[in-house]
Design brief:
The complex is a heterodimer of chains A (112) and B (110).
Chain A (H helix, E strand, L loop, with lengths): L3 E4 L2 E4 L5 E7 L5 E8 L3 E10 L2 E4 L6 E7 L2 E6 L8 E8 L6 E3 L3 E5 L1
Parallel strand pairs in A: 2-11
Antiparallel strand pairs in A: 1-3, 3-8, 4-5, 4-9, 5-6, 7-8, 9-10, 9-11
Chain B lengths: L3 E3 L4 E4 L4 E7 L7 E6 L6 E6 L3 E5 L2 E6 L4 E6 L8 E9 L3 E4 L3 E6 L1
The chains are: A mainly beta (112), B mainly beta (110).
Chain lengths: 112, 110
């Protein structure tokens, strides 16, 4: 497996609380991605990063922010969690734009 | 319109037969295409990548790309029960955003 670690693996949180998910890689890959996966919707891109401090929005970015202060870490923050953000979140990395991407184990987030 | 479209299935194929999975994409500029396999409760696993028109074979898997018609397909020969999973097609939209279809659930019937 590519060196990608997501933490936490499971989290239950209350509506309105902030939540931060972490993706850590040991591959020194330039691109990192955050996806959410929901039944009937497949994998939807939330945000991605193409370098340290370089990020851009995906198709479902509302309610989420990201930060990448160093190559190996990409953080996803839900500023004020809502029940609609209950989902499985996946991080992925790729060496460059257009190249093969590899996924972390996922984080199951439940907002109650 | 989603950038990558897949028939969501489910698709059932007898063991030993050929499973055929199809995907269309909207961005004519896309250069990279991927097939991922995802078992229930697990993360997506890359099984094939294809960048040029034509066929690419890897063991029992063959990916086919037709850029003129904007479709990419995956053939699984000699299907096994262990091939039962959801298969996700993906392309790099704008060469930066890795975009997925909704996936096709495949069941191999023993």
């Amino acid at each position: 497996d590519a060196g990608i670690t997501q933490s936490p693996r499971h989290k239950v949180t209350e509506t309105g609380t902030p939540v931060t998910l972490r993706c850590h890689q040991t591959e020194n890959h330039r691109y990192m991605y955050w996806y959410r996966q929901d039944p009937g919707h497949g994998l939807r891109l939330i945000h991605y990063s193409y370098g340290v401090k370089d990020t851009d929005k995906g198709e479902v970015s509302d309610g989420y922010s990201v930060s990448r202060s160093k190559t190996e870490d990409f953080l996803l923050t839900l500023e004020s969690a809502t029940s609609s953000q209950t989902s499985v979140y996946f991080c992925a990395i790729s060496k460059g734009g257009g190249t093969e991407a590899f996924f972390g184990q996922g984080t199951r987030l439940t907002v109650v | 319109q989603k950038e990558v479209e897949q028939n969501s299935g489910p698709l059932s194929v007898p063991e030993g037969a050929i499973a055929s999975l199809n995907c269309t994409y909207s961005d004519r500029g896309s250069q990279s295409f991927f097939w991922y396999r995802q078992y229930s409760g697990k993360s997506p696993e890359l099984i094939m990548s294809i960048y040029s028109n034509g066929d690419k074979e890897d063991g029992r898997f063959t990916a086919q790309l037709n850029k003129a018609s904007q479709y990419v397909s995956l053939l699984i020969r000699d299907s096994q029960p262990s091939d039962s999973a959801t298969y996700l097609c993906a392309d790099f939209f704008g060469n930066e955003k890795l975009t997925f279809g909704t996936g096709t659930r495949l069941t191999i019937i023993p």
